[in-house]
Amino acid sequence: MKKILILNGSLGGNSGNTEFLLERLQKKITSSEVVHLKDLLEKKIDIKELKTKLQNADGFVFTSGTYWDSWGSPMQYFLEAATEFEASDIFMGKPAAVMITMHSVGGKGVLSRLQGVLNTLGMMIPPMSGIVYSLAGQLALETQSSFAEDFWSLEDVDIIAHNLMTAVNRELTYKPWPVDHKDPKRLWVKE
């Protein structure tokens, strides 16, 4: 069975709005494990411990709330720490989905930027594998507004699960570009 690693970059960890999306997702992808990146930021786990989980994963789901038009600081910390794995077998060609929550604005930009970062790290972004679930969308759906179909819904989480697993189960071979793995933290700016 293929393993999916869910990386929750929300500030709320396992108690925020994003957790509701994760619960629904885990019903569809039973071979998944959640890592709350808040624990990485708070030094309860380290990147070396997480590296093994990343290596053993066949695909990923990245989640975060929206904070000042960006992802949560736990996600940012993870991305900075994981830079040393760029274009390595840890990420190369593995499918990744993204789920973002937001109150009202900024989430679509967060989704698009995060998908771009993940692709640059070496991951594949399957079609229809990103969602922004918003308070505004939920309210529109609850009131059965005529424009409710234009908002992502909880049912779209099921589509993300399906498309991610479709991508995970295909045989794809990609080549990485050369990356300096010896010293990713090298100082290069000089006066």
Automatic annotation (TrEMBL):
The domain of life for this entry's organism is: Bacteria
InterPro entries found in the cross-reference section: Flavoprotein-like_sf, FMN_Rdtase-like_dom
Every NADPH-dependent FMN reductase-like domain range:
3-127
Any Pfam family matching the protein: FMN_red
Family annotation (SUPFAM superfamilies): Flavoproteins
Protein name, per record: NAD(P)H-dependent oxidoreductase
